[in-house]
Amino acid sequence: MPATRFNLIDEGWIPVARKGSVDLRTIFTDSTITALGGNPVEKIALFKLLLAIAQSAYTPKDEEDWGKLGCGGMQKKVLEYLDEHYECFWLYGENPFLQMPQVLAASKIPYGSVQMEVATGNTSVVTEIQSEKQLTDAEKAVLLVTLMGFAFGGKKTDNSVVLTRGYMSKINEKGKPSTGKPGASLGFKGYMHTFAFLDTLVLSIYVNLLTDENIQRIAMYPGGIGTAPWLAMPSGEDDETARRLKNSYMGRLVPLSRFVLLEEDGIHYSEGVLHFGYMDSVVDPSVTVDFSARPKPKVLWTDPDRKPWRQLTSLLSFLDANNLNKFICFQLKEVLPRLAIYNSFSIWSGGIRVHTNAGEQYVSGNDDFVESQVKFGGGFFSDSRDFFMTLTEEMNYLENNAKIIFSCIFKYFAALKADGESIAGQATRVYWQLCEFQFQQLLNVCEADLGGRQAKDMRKFFDGFVYQIYDQTCQQDTARQMEAWAENRPFSRIKEEK
Q1: CA 58, CA 55: separation in Å to the nearest integer?
Q2: With contact defined as beta carbons under 8 Å apart, do 305 and 366 qualify?
Q3: pLDDT tens track for 145-158
Q4: Residue 303, CA atoms < 13 Å, CB-side half-sphere
Q5: H or E, element range at 372
Q6: 126 pLDDT exceeds 90?
Q7: Strand ranges of the sheet holding 344-352, from the earlier edge strand across to the other edge
C-alpha cells in the first residue's frame, strides 16, 4: 500500500476548466469554476460523484424544499458534511475511498490496462496519449471514480476472487471465472448521458439535485436515495449492503461496478456489484430510454457519427405529450421546470462508443468520446411545446437534406459505373459537420420565433451545404462526368423530394 496520504477533500485532483486540478472543498466554495475538465466519461463520472456528495449532505423533500435550500444552502450543508466525514475521503489507508482491501488476492495489473485511452496488449500505439505512463495520486483518484461506473467489460477483471459466499455471477457455465460485465453507467455500446448545466459548476450541481419526490416519480429506485458507499462499503458482491445499493439512486451515481485496490505500481481489480440494466427497466436518470418499445426497451447509445445535438428532439420529446417518440431522459424531465428562473441554461450530452465481442469491450474503428453542448435562453419556457414542434420540423428538414446528399452522390457514381457508397457516406458526415456550426443559431431562431418563419428562412444555408458538398465531391472534368453531374445534381431534387 502506498505510504503517501492523500485526502480528496483538500488535495487537488478534480480537473476543472481553466484552473487545473482542485479539491472537493474548492468545488463547493469557488463559484468562478464553470465546468469540469477531462474527457466526456470522466466529466460524467466526476459530476455524478459531486451529485452523490450533495445528495448525501442534504436531499430536499420536494421542489418547495429545494427552492428554500438554495445554492448557498447546499454549499453550506456540503461543507459541513465534508468536515464531518473527513476520514471517509482518504485515498489510501485502512479504509481507502471506494476501495475494497479484500480484493488484495486479485491479480495486480498495470493502470494502463484499465484506462480507456491507453493501448495495451497487441493494440498499436498511434499517438502519445495512448502510451501508458506513471499516474499521480490525483490521476489515480479520477481513474478510481471513473471505473466505478464506466469500467470496460472483459477478461481484465480477476473474477476468481469472490467475496460473497455462494455468489455465482462471476462464474461461467464451465465453472470458471467469467469475464467482467460492463460498468453500470457504460452498458453494452456506451450509454449517452445528459444533464442540464448553468454558468457555474456549483449551480449545475444544485439544479441537478433530485428530491425525494423526484425519486418517487422516476420509480426505478425502490430504495430511495440510499446511503453513499463511502459511508457503508459492502463486504461482497451480493451482501445486504450491495443489494441496498443496487436498489437506490446512490447506486446509480456511484455504482461500485468494480472492486479495486490501488497500489503504487498497479491495481487489484475484480467485478463488483452487478447492477440492473435497461433490459430490467432500470437506468441512470441521465440515460435516455424508451421503456415502451417492443419487443425490448431502447436506449440512446453514444454515436460518433450522430452527435448528441442531432438527438435533441429525442432528449426533449417529453415536452409534447402527443409525440410518438417515447424516449425520455428522466434527469432532464425532472429538473427542466426549475430552469425557468434562470436567464439561460445548457443541455450537455456525452459518452463513449465501444464495441463488444465475446464479452470483451474495446474502442475500435470510429469509436470515440463524444460530447455536445447547446444553449437555451429564458424564452424557451414561454411555449416549450411550440419550440419543440418547430425544432422537430427543422431537424427533419436537415435529416432529409442528408438523405438527398447521399442519394445524389451515390447515383452520380453509379452513372459512372463506380461504387460511391463510402464517398457518399463521407460527404454526408461533412454535411453534418457544417450543420453543427449553424445549429446554435438555428436553436436561437426556433426559440425566438415560435411560428417558425425565421427558422424556414435559415433553410437556404443548409441547402447551400447540399450544393457545395455535391459540387466538391462530384467531378465535372470529362463529358461523362459532366453528364452524370447534371443528371443527379440536387438543385431540382431538393424541391421534388421535400
Answers
A1: 5
A2: yes
A3: 999 999 999 999 99
A4: 11
A5: strand 369-377
A6: no
A7: 193-197, 344-352, 369-377
